[in-house]
Amino acid sequence: MFLLFPIICPYSSNQQYILMFFDKINKANKFALQNDIILIDTLIFLCKRGVKMIIFFEPVFFDKVWGGNFLSSKFNFNVSNTCGECWGISTHKNGESIIKNTEFKGKTLKYLFDNHKSYFGNYSKNEFPILVKIIDAQKDLSIQVHPDDSYARKLGSFGKSECWYILDALDNTKMIIGHNAKSLDELTNMINSKDYNNLLNKIDVKKNDYFYIEAGTVHAICKGTLLLEVQQSSDITYRLYDYDRLDNGKLRDLHIKKAIEVIKIPDNEVVTTHNNKYFDYEIIEIHNNTSFISHLHGDYLAILEGHGTINDLTIKKGDFLMVTSNESYNIDGNIKLQRTRF
Ligand code: ZN
To answer: Is 300 within 8 Å of 219 (Cβ atoms)?
Structure first.
């Protein structure tokens, strides 16, 4: 029995091989003894766990009217000086992560999720729920809002609750989170008269601040900020105001009617603790060899500072990776990382 184990184990993510194996056993009828049945049960358990894998992703980059050069200067990515977004872990059709290593090199994370659920602990839902990105705002982003799940469902998407971890911020940088209107009438009037100075709630931000932006919260990332954003896997944004600036000679579309439909009222509370309704979120600092066991649905890591190793693989600032379901792993070095679980 033990001799057979290494033969089938490399294929254990593929149930077809396991079924072929047991078919052969049945035909041979050689394993009827009680001890062998226990051994087979153990083998099934081990095989169902899948093969341990640490999977690195190729980020997808987007130039933006408000983008800057931090993604090249601080993260060493080979990108333009107007790169605004780096999508590090994504199955969203607008920017899917490509796998950089393992037997799945060249395939997308979405392919892996759709076809090899054992790596995700047989996660029961059809859609991969999160998107991890870095945003470099050299100019102000538009004042915007995202719909919640019930509104977005009509459009075939998740809603978008998001959270920000500030990686770097210039002195006196402010963000917009929430508004001061107390009723729908007041909100509509202030928007119609472009009274954004009085409507919007501005707050100071600095490096290492954390904000949870629930769907329905008016917000804007403001110039001088580099941040890590973890969000529901959605790309629906309703733009309320874009400072009347031009993008390629044209004003970008506004979506004022839809924005008013989804904005929470009242909403002047800034949330600085994580709400784990959609995903768990943790910043972890490592200074010597540390052991972890990944979550049933996998651990999703963004390396924010430093370099070191994960098991026998090198990791450095700017890497995005996942550890598949329920596996033990070690990280060594001087590293700051963000871990998402769902
Ligand atoms: Zn947003």
So the answer is: no
